[in-house]
Write a structure and sequence with these properties.
By secondary structure, the protein is of the alpha/beta class. It is globular. The strands form two sheets. Strands 2, 3, 4, 5, 6, 7, 8 and 9 form an eight-stranded parallel sheet that branches. A two-stranded parallel sheet has the order 1-10. It binds 5'-deoxyadenosine and FE2/S2 (inorganic) cluster (FES).
């Protein structure tokens, strides 16, 4: 895929039904061939909304004093939820939170990972739950420690690869350079690495989004999670508004399809933010080449406290309601769920295998 081809795909308007059908068809074909048609679940626990950062777009930013219920779930609550995840057949778990770098927090996460890996071992999951972390920018040694505890995937969105835009949506203490070096550390430390961007940010162009995709490819990432930018009323970006709903939805879907065509064998998530725009948003993402979705496992009592953007779905529901709801949604598009599996992307598996091969060659020489 050239930059020009990516731009053409991203520019398809929601009114051009024949171009849309053609795009969906191409994306589905590549998905089927490269990663299969199963949808993999990653149960997500948003275990703390305490955040030391102040990203201008985010509802749980440090200086949003209207979030009065700052919480961190207890170890027991998190473990119980993780075991429910394993028993429900979701082979993989995402631990996500606001960003903290203090030693107490890191030790807490380290302990969580070890305990979850141990306690979730069963006949169905001989290696326990797969664990993905999403706890932001950390020191390389921290990434290393957390990997040694048993986390094997990490999500860190780049948000945008355009330097000027990145600067506009973050405080000066956060830089694109730091974010990129974290992604490199994650790779070096041996994680399967996921990244992504927000789509439709004020000041973002189609060209920038095409460059984002080329960045994903150059960084050789294993997983992509992207979603529409949705305004949060208490954020400093609120006055800049957001894209009109229908065009934003189509642009987000076009991004998913373009990523599938440009990085054929990676895992692509159909994210919750799509469902904030339209009730069937996540299913639609899956029909444009996405193969992963993240059922929300956060206890109902604290869900209200984790609203990164307005209109987040599932806030009033429980994890059991989401389980039933998603089952119907996936069945409605004729897809099946890959239960009891980590569901690593073929891209990651190929890379790991290539590394093993080269290591064993070194040994035999
Ligand atoms: N709209 C959409 N996505 C958002 N995120 C944070 N705030 C918003 C928003 N207002 C996304 C960011 C972050 C992820 C956890 O949530 O991309 O990396
Ligand atoms: Fe949560 Fe539908 S997925 S209510």
């Amino acid at each position: 895929m050239t930059r020009r081809e990516l731009i053409d795909i991203l520019s398809i308007p929601h009114t051009d039904t024949s171009a849309i059908e053609d795009l969906k068809h191409r994306a589905h074909e590549v998905m089927e061939r490269e990663v299969g048609t199963e949808v993999y679940y990653r149960g997500i626990i948003e275990f703390s909304n305490i955040c030391t950062l102040d990203c201008h777009y985010c509802g749980i930013r440090r200086s949003n004093t209207r979030v009065t219920d700052r919480y961190t779930l207890s170890k027991q609550e998190i473990i119980d939820t993780a075991l429910w995840c394993a028993e429900s057949g979701y082979g993989s778990l995402v631990l996500q939170s606001g960003e903290r770098r203090d030693p107490a927090f890191i030790s807490f996460v380290e302990d969580l990972i070890r305990t979850i890996r141990q306690e979730s071992v069963s006949q169905r999951l001989p290696d326990g739950l797969g664990i993905t972390l999403g706890i932001g920018e950390q020191e390389e040694e921290t990434y290393q420690r957390l990997a040694e505890s048993g986390a094997h995937r990490y999500l860190l969105r780049i948000e945008t690869t355009n330097e000027a835009l990145f600067r506009r949506i973050h405080p000066p203490s956060q830089t694109l350079t730091d974010r990129i070096s974290c992604l490199k550390s994650l790779r070096k430390t041996g994680y399967q690495v996921g990244t992504g961007v927000m789509i439709g940010l004020p000041g973002q162009s189609i060209d920038m989004l095409a460059d984002d995709i080329l960045f994903f490819r150059d960084m050789d990432v294993d997983m992509i999670g992207m979603g529409p930018y949705i305004v949060h009323e208490d954020s400093p970006m609120a006055h800049r508004g957001m894209m009109e709903k229908e065009s934003l939805m189509q642009l987000s879907l076009n991004m998913i399809a373009a990523v599938r065509l440009a990085l054929p064998d990676v895992n692509i998530a159909s994210t919750t933010a799509l469902q904030a725009l339209y009730p069937d948003g996540r299913e639609r993402g899956l029909t444009y080449g996405a193969n992963v979705t993240m059922p929300n496992l956060t206890p109902q009592s604290v869900r209200k406290g984790y609203q990164l953007y307005q209109g987040k779905p599932c806030v009033e529901e429980s994890k059991t309601e989401c389980r039933g709801c998603l089952r119907g949604r996936i069945a409605s598009i004729g897809r099946t769920v890959g239960f009891d599996a980590w569901g690593d992307s073929p891209h990651a598996l190929r890379r790991t295998r290539a590394r093993h091969d080269s290591l064993s060659r070194t040994v035999s020489f």
